[in-house]
Sequence to fold (182 residues):
Amino acid sequence: MCATPLSPVHRHLVQPETRRIECACDACALLFENQSGRYRLVPRDPRALNGFALDDLQWQRLGVPIGLAFFFHSSAAGKMMAFYPSPAGATEAQLDLDAWNEIAGLSVSLQQLQPDIEALLVNRVSPPHLYLIAPIDRCYELVGVVRKRWQGFSGGAELQAELAAFFDSLTPRLINTERASA
Fold:
């Protein structure tokens, strides 16, 4: 934003209308804290959803064809949206909004997702399944991992190792703040 050279660890802003993510120095990022204008400041840390899980039927009802996805409220679209990573990038799933609303009713944290900047990130690829509230930039980082590392029909062993490393990188930053269930 201000053209100050950025450190490898820096903040991100989202333009809700375009879903474009932009890098920002700490000083510029502070200008957008608690704001909801043209730019929104992306939170830094994921939050654990302690005790939250979806069974296979609930997952099927959401309409996501694979076991790796993220769900966020797009203020530009005016609705919840679901995306999953693919070799072609972020792919939108046709989210069943009735199924989403039922599932969101199970967790106050899901009901309080910050539009455009927080998402429910789900990894059901292999047990144990992981459900967390993640900053939207980390969700798109996951998309980049899949796009960059995908090989063959099923993604390949290198991708599986990268996915494990990605989710391991989230673990030390997890904040265990699941609010009481509704």
